[in-house]
Design goal:
The chain is mainly alpha-helical. Helix content is 48%, strand content 0%. The chain has 10 helices and no strands. The protein has helices at residues 2-6, 16-19, 22-31, 47-56, 72-81, 97-106, 116-119, 122-131, 142-150, 163-173. Helix 6 runs parallel beside helix 8. The longest helix has 11 residues, at 163-173. The radius of gyration is 19 Å and the shape is elongated.
């Protein structure tokens, strides 16, 4: 336990019996979420261990079971730490307004991983653009991009984005 208390990634060098010990794995992932990748497979479906890991390192979500990638609490913890963890979430949760909004608040460009519906939602797009205009490159909605290009129904008075980002987004997706 002492070794993983100092650096959770030391779990990598531990004997298999320690990688299979829940207490040791929990200490390791609390110390460093990246340690999850060295834990026994059975822990990839352990909600407490996964939440402890993603709270420390959002991208540890990659190791979680599909069941936990569809768990609201797990995904919310992950995207609050790293918005791009949304990429690993289930399709159902990529369409959850609360989760996507948290992901965008943490990392505006994570709008790229939202469902088509939320990627084209004006509130989501404006939230992302208000923090990072380059997030426009991650918008896939033809309707939103056209409205921005025409400067019509979307209020962008407080958002400063470059026309080149809009052109890039249109060329990338259409």
């Amino acid at each position: 336990v002492a070794a993983v208390t100092n650096d959770g990634r030391d779990l990598k060098y531990a004997a298999d019996k320690f990688k299979d010990d829940r207490e040791i794995v929990l200490v390791a992932v609390i110390n460093n979420g990246r340690a999850l990748q060295y834990a026994a497979d059975k822990f990839m479906d352990d909600k407490e261990i996964i939440i402890s890991a993603v709270t420390n390192y959002g991208s540890a979500l990659e190791c979680a079971s599909d069941k936990l990638k569809d768990d609201r609490d797990v995904i919310l913890a992950a995207v609050k730490k790293d918005g791009s963890a949304l990429e690993c979430a289930s399709d159902k949760l990529k369409n959850n307004r609360e989760i996507v909004l948290e992901a965008i608040k943490n990392k505006p460009r994570s709008i790229e991983f939202a469902s088509d519906e939320l990627n084209g939602d004006p509130e989501m797009v404006l939230t992302a653009l208000s923090q990072d205009s380059v997030a426009l490159r991650c918008v896939r909605s033809e309707k939103i991009l056209k409205e921005l290009a025409e400067n019509s129904s979307i209020d962008v008075t407080n958002i400063n984005f470059k026309v080149s980002d809009l052109v890039y987004a249109v060329e990338k997706h259409f």
